[in-house]
Amino acid sequence: MSESLESYSPILDRDLADLAVIDLGNLELNHLNIEAALDTISQAAAKAAGTAKLAIMLGGEHTASLGGFRGMKRVHPDGVIIQADAHLDMRPDYEGQPFTHATWLHHVGEEFGFDRIHQVGLRSGDRAEWRLARGTTAWSSTELSLPTSVRERIEKRPVYVSVDIDVLDPAHAPGTGCPEPGGMTFRELASFLYSLEGLNVVALDVMEVSPNVDPANITAAAAAKLVREAILLFAAE
After folding, report:
1. Parallel, antiparallel, or unpaired: how do β-strands 139-140 and 14-15 relate?
2. Residue 40 and residue 31 in contact, taking contact as beta carbons nearer than 8 Å
3. How far is residue 88's CA from residue 103's CA, in Å, rounded to a whole number?
4. Based on CB atoms within 10 Å of each CB, which residue in 15, 107, 158, 166 is the most buried?
5. Burial of 141 (0-12, 13-18, 19+ CB in 10 A)
6. How high is the mean pLDDT of the chain?
7. Structural domains in the chain plus CATH codes
8. What's the average model confidence in pLDDT over 100-110?
9. How far, in whole angstroms, is CA 205 from its chain's centroid?
10. Integer Rg of the chain from CA
11. Per-residue pLDDT tens for 50-85?
């Protein structure tokens, strides 16, 4: 869908034509078990984070973000994560499986510390997840914003931003696995992205886009435009 977008952002007054943007291609994961797949993602993410001003991953099942954050942490040990998502994704396991889209952030907390996690746009999760989020994370909110005090705590630490496209209302992103009513518009999500200017964002992903259930490509178009704005916001000089 990026081919249907202009390379120029009128909001940022910046153009992709002025940047060196490299597509590192797809990762072939179908033949791997989950642990091996996450390790493959982690290695690729570390390579991208070590060479690019901004590393970007597109997906796909949100578990991949665990591999992405692991890879970023190899290069930026002091890194923190900002998750924009309808769901908390903090269950210790889901339907008997330890690694799923509903558990990946729990693994981030266990491996690196829940105080590295900042969550916004939340509106769905079980009771235990909400208690865990409210009691252990650096910030968890139903609002799509970061208070000044939270930004000051992050300061210049490296930031990994993970966007689950279902943070958008299903009217704006029907092509996703777990649509959750009561979400944000694209304009609101873009405004949140712009609000992160000034933070040291070194990596970003946009996940859970499922074009096969969205024949109008509304969701893919939103994801592509969000990625364009992210590149121009965080990678331009």
Report:
1. unpaired
2. no
3. 9
4. 166
5. middle
6. 97
7. 2-21+41-234 (3.40.800.10)
8. 98
9. 4
10. 17
11. 999 999 999 999 999 999 999 999 999 999 999 999
Q: Are 232 and 7 in contact (CB under 8 A)?
A: no
pLDDT tens digits for 128-152?
999 999 999 999 999 999 999 999 9
Residue 237: pLDDT above 90?
no
Rounded CA gap, 168 and 70, in Å?
Answer: 26
CA-CA distance, 226 to 206, in Å (whole number)?
8
Give the C-alpha distances (Å, rounded to integers) separating 172 from 31, 86, 105, 166, 222. Answer: 33, 13, 24, 9, 8
CB 68 within 8 A of CB 111: no
| pLDDT (tens digit per residue) in 179-199 | 999 999 999 999 999 999 999
Of 163, 158, 182, 171, nearest to 223 by C-alpha is 163
Burial 92-127 (b: 16+ CB within 10 A, else e): eebeeeebbbbbbbbbbbeebebebbbbbbbbbbee
pLDDT for res 218: 97
The CA-based angle 119-99-89, given to 5 degrees, is 20
pTM over 0.85: yes
DSSP string computed for 159-190: EEEEEEGGGB-TTT--SSSS--SS-B-HHHHH
